[in-house]
Amino acid sequence: MQFFRASSLIVLCSVALGALAAPSPVPASNATLDKRITHVGRGTFFDPNGGIGACGIPEQNTDSIVTIGSQRFNSNNGGNCNQWVQISANGVTAFGLTRDSCPGCGVDDLDLTPALFQRFAPLDVGVITVTWNFLPFGFEP
């Protein structure tokens, strides 16, 4: 009887230690990584004057805000709202926050607030060529 108790205890301890030592499953991540795509398009400017954009947030002329073409914006139901964009033009690089859609823009065009546009050129230039890409959510310039 003692042998049975001792062997049962050894088996029980072995099973318990084996369970503790077994690797635990790692939950699959729902996050996906977007491939960084560089876009080239027209850069223009708009005057939001405190209006509320498609992302539901008031926009000021002095903010660093971009609007993206409606085709791109609508293709993921506004999923780029509050996503930072890195923009380069005329040897300057700056950042803008996506807050609206631009019905008159092409798929790779950006419409910038006056403050952001003036980082690249005077407003009287009107249209510039921009190179840009989305930055990962959570990025802060």
Describe the structure.
This protein has helices at residues 2-21, 70-75, 114-117, and strands spanning 39-45, 65-69, 84-89, 92-102, 110-112, 128-134. The protein is α/β, with parallel strands linked by helices. It has a domain at 39-134: RlpA-like domain (Barwin-like endoglucanases, Beta Barrel). The protein has a six-stranded mixed beta barrel. The longest helix is centred in the N-terminal third of the chain and has 20 residues, at 2-21. The protein is globular, with a radius of gyration of 27 Å. The relative contact order is 0.23. InterPro entries: Expansin_CellWall, RlpA-like_sf. It comes from Rickenella mellea.
- Please count the beta strands (DSSP E, at least 2 residues each): 6
What share of the residues does DSSP label as strand, in percent?
25-35%
| CATH topology-level name of the domain at 39-134 | Barwin-like endoglucanases
CATH superfamily of the domain at 39-134, by name, is: RlpA-like domain
CATH class of the domain at 39-134: Mainly Beta
CATH architecture of the domain at 39-134: Beta Barrel
H/E series, N to C? Answer: HEEHEEEHE
**N- to C-terminal distance:** 72 Å
* Rg (CA only): 27 Å
Q: Low-confidence segments, ≥5 residues, pLDDT <50?
A: 15-33
Overall pLDDT score: 84
Strand order of the largest sheet: 1-5-2-4-3-6
Instruction: Please report the number of helical segments.
Output: 3
Structural class: alpha/beta
Largest sheet: 6 strands, mixed, barrel
Signal peptide: 1-21
Keywords: Signal
Protein name: RlpA-like protein double-psi beta-barrel domain-containing protein
